[in-house]
Amino acid sequence: MSAIRHLIGVACTALLCMQGAAADVGIPARYTDSGPDPLLVRIFEHIEKNRWEPALNETEALLKAYPKFRLGHLIKGDLLLARTRTLKNFGEGGAQHVAAKTGAPVAEQVADLQQEAIARLRAYKNRPNGAQVPRYLLQMRPDQEHAVVVDTQKARLYLYQNDNGTPRFVADYYISHGKLGSDKLKEGDQKTPIGVYHVTANLSRKKLPDLYGSGAFPINYPNKWDKKMGKNGHGIWLHGTPSDTFSRPPLASDGCVVLANSDLDALAKNLQVGATPVIISNSIEWTSLDDWQAERKALLAMIDTWRSDWESRDIDRYARHYARDFSGDGKTLSQWIAQKKKVNAGKQWIKVTTHNVSMFRNPGKDEYVVVTFEQDYQSSNLSNRMQKRQYWIKEDGRWKIVHEDAA
């Protein structure tokens, strides 16, 4: 049996040294243990400690719960075959069974399942704890009950709850993404976009081909920033898997984020069309709650200064908040400022208040923050209320608005 321990150890690199991973530091019991990952952890713990029969028993339990889970079949095949002879390759015992299910080349299937095992175990071992949050979730509006953050490198989706303004980890799920990786640039490049998005629709199983599984949630790629950067494409969704498939390899979609149907069903209960932010990163940047709070307060103060300077009717104070490359309502910076100057000349006073502010930092190489809020504008001769969206970037060492429009 030592051969299978070695072979699976090679396949999962150092991931088998995970004694106690299911009870990792900082993981309270309220967290959702989604899918087969907790069972996988226990199976590999048994293998690491040479407990072959318990490993096989756990694998049987895994397949009873998830009969279409191909990685489980592969592990079971290896465990059974290792009883009779020494294995030379990972997946040797279960590869034929798996390949017969899909029709794909055996070596390709084994490689895919090896990568899935690595992704699942690595992410499960390193689940976030309550002391850290994704840097991107600076502020959710009160009506945004949850936020989704995707880490493409880890093939993982994290669900956060809005706990009176503080993001609290709720659950995480294994995902597949673009065949050619992330940072989508153009139509058909088979990459998953990186950026700040939100759910735009809920498409039921009845309206979709079997490829999309139990449903789909489109997101608003390309967003305003993507278009400004010349990116294009469409049809980026969160969706499920075909009825004969439990999960897909980490790199398997044409750009969408794909979850097991059971995971998508669980996630769907927390998604709000038009409200839930979906932030897709290449690798999540985690920050302490103290640092998160400090950055959040600084950005809120910056927005309040912009609001105050607008009220002052001092056009120079107002203009300092806008980037050289600014665009808004089809206007350049000089056109925007000229219009504001003309409008302000006819005002005796201006009062601006903001409500329900949300702020999300871009996880990509472009450093920007998406800010949305309800704006209540009153002046000596006009009053209106609108939903506004701004994109703030760092320019000359300070945050400035590079785009502004109605949300």
Describe the structure.
The chain folds into three domains: 2-125, no CATH class; 132-284, L,D-transpeptidase catalytic domain-like; 288-406, Nuclear Transport Factor 2, Chain: A (Roll), CATH 3.10.450.50. 32% of the residues lie in helices and 28% in strands. It contains eleven helices and 20 strands. The strands form five sheets. Strands 2-17-18-19-20-15-16 form a seven-stranded mixed sheet. A five-stranded mixed sheet has the order 5-4-3-13-7. Strand 17 (350-361) and strand 18 form a beta hairpin. It is elongated and about 90 Å long. The relative contact order is 0.11. Mean pLDDT is 89; it is low at 13-31.
End-to-end separation in angstroms reads: 61 Å
What level of helicity do the residues show? 25-40%
Number of helical runs?
A: 11
Let me know the CATH homologous superfamily of the largest domain.
Answer: L,D-transpeptidase catalytic domain-like
Please write the CATH class name of the largest domain: Mainly Beta
Question: What is the CATH architecture annotation of the largest domain?
Answer: Beta Barrel
The parts where pLDDT drops under 50 for at least 5 residues are 13-31
Kindly report the spatial arrangement of strands forming the biggest sheet.
2-17-18-19-20-15-16
Number of extended strands: 20
**Radius of gyration over alpha carbons?**
25 Å
Structural class of the helix and strand makeup? alpha+beta
Give the overall shape, derived from the CA principal axes: elongated
Main β-sheet description = 7 strands, mixed
**DSSP strand content:** 25-35%
